[in-house]
């Protein structure tokens, strides 16, 4: 799968070419492998639940219920509850693997280790809830869909089935001739794509519940606090960055500029053969070099091009300075928050630096898009590929910078190329 393709079935369903892509077949594979698992669980739930439901119904209607039967059913129910965390564990492992058929996003592990944890952690009981849902709700949904498919097949076969003594009863009417069955067959044929989408929606809903129950980390409150803490740190860093930028730009930089001018004027007043001429010339050159260094420091805090040209213009300037030809395609129809804008600039700068240093590429392309509530930055080159964060190509630091603003970095770099770096940054209003 390339990075331009949908990452999961729910996203693929929104694409126009869904029915002629591989996603319907992946959904079918997920549904087919669901049937035996859900069937076994449904039988188990029926064996345990049906007698209990019958006893409860009889008691509600005032019918006598034998005490030994109540005791036996209670013991069976308690035993089922006690065994459920153990049974749901291998099921959860299988379904985490199956989820990859329709959802390519990483799924957090269960974080449940040891027998005691199977009974004392929320993650383990979420797996039990998933098993109950898979054996209870999923067979009902699949059964209703199977009835719709059976009805559609019956209508499609109507012109060949109806006639003579064979009739098709549809509830609101009866089809007793091939000619009368033709309109229904045409309607059934037109409904086939709708059934394809409906099947995709059904599987996407099932996968969404699986991801929700099986993917929730066991230390959710702690992770939420870490996320909030990281957001506070990023906000504090941004405020401090602005303060340093303002102090340097409005305080130190004008003074250094004035000092450089004064030294330049002093050089004009001092004869070249004077003993002070050489030290003064050296001091003047060092002051000018320090001005250049200070400008780079200020630019490193927040690139001046962003304030003057905006993200698209600043990226275009980076592309113009690159050592390989770079094409920039920017589709930014809405404004981008300043912190996200700065992060995106650094992403492009570091990625183009990697292209120049490591890729051996002859061209590169930068794409900036603003779908939904996020900014997507893509940098692609035709180099040798094989990029590996473990080899110190700057990708690890880049991923950390992206993660600091709650974004994510995706890398596709097969040996032989091409290399595609995709960064998704949330743009909160």
From TrEMBL:
The chain crosses the membrane at residues 27-53, 65-88, 140-162, 182-204. The keyword Nucleus does not apply. Pfam families: HATPase_c (PF02518), HisKA_3 (PF07730). Keywords: ATP-binding, Kinase, Membrane, Nucleotide-binding, Phosphoprotein, Transferase, Transmembrane, Transmembrane helix, Two-component regulatory system. It catalyses: ATP + protein L-histidine = ADP + protein N-phospho-L-histidine. Residues 240-306 form the Signal transduction histidine kinase subgroup 3 dimerisation and phosphoacceptor domain. Its EC number is 2.7.13.3. The keyword NADP does not apply. GO terms for molecular function: kinase activity. Residues 346-427 form the Histidine kinase/HSP90-like ATPase domain. It is an enzyme of class 2 (transferase). This is histidine kinase. It comes from Micromonospora halotolerans.
């Amino acid at each position: 799968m390339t990075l331009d393709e949908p990452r999961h079935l729910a996203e693929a369903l929104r694409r126009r070419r869904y029915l002629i892509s591989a996603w319907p077949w992946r959904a079918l594979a997920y549904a087919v492998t669901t049937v035996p698992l859900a069937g076994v669980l449904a039988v188990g739930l029926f064996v345990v639940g049906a007698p209990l439901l019958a006893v409860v119904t009889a008691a509600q209607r005032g019918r006598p219920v034998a005490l030994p039967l109540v005791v036996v059913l209670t013991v069976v129910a308690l035993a089922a509850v006690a065994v459920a965390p153990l049974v749901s564990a291998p099921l959860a492992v299988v379904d985490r693997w199956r989820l990859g058929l329709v959802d390519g996003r990483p799924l957090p592990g269960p974080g449940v280790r040891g027998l005691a944890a199977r009974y004392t952690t929320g993650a383990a009981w979420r797996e039990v809830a998933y098993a109950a849902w898979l054996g209870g709700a999923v067979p009902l949904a699949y059964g209703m869909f199977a009835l719709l498919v059976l009805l559609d097949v019956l209508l499609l076969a109507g012109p060949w089935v109806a006639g003579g003594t064979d009739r098709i009863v549809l509830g609101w009417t009866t089809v007793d001739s091939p000619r009368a069955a033709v309109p229904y067959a045409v309607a059934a044929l037109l409904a086939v794509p709708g059934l394809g989408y409906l099947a995709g929606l059904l599987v996407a809903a099932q996968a969404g519940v699986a991801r929700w129950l099986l993917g929730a980390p066991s230390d959710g409150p702690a992770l939420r606090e870490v996320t909030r803490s990281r957001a506070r740190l990023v906000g504090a860093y941004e405020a401090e960055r602005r303060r340093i930028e303002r102090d340097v730009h409005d305080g130190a930089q004008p003074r250094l500029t004035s000092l450089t001018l004064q030294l330049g004027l002093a050089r004009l007043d001092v004869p070249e053969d004077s003993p002070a001429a050489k030290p003064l010339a050296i001091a003047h050159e060092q002051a000018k070099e320090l001005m250049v260094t200070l400008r780079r420091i200020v630019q490193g805090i927040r690139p001046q091009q962003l304030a003057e040209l905006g993200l698209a213009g600043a990226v275009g300037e980076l592309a113009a300075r690159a050592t390989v030809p770079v094409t920039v395609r920017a589709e930014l129809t809405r404004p981008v928050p300043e912190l996200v804008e700065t992060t995106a600039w650094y992403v492009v700068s570091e990625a183009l630096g990697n292209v120049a240093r490591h890729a051996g590429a002859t061209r590169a392309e930068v794409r900036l898009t603003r779908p939904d509530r996020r900014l997507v930055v893509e940098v692609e080159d035709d180099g040798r590929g094989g990029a590996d964060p473990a080899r110190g190509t700057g990708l690890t630091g880049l991923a950390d910078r992206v993660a600091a603003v709650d974004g994510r970095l995706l890398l596709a770099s097969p040996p032989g190329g091409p290399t595609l770096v995709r960064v998704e940054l949330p743009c909160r209003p």
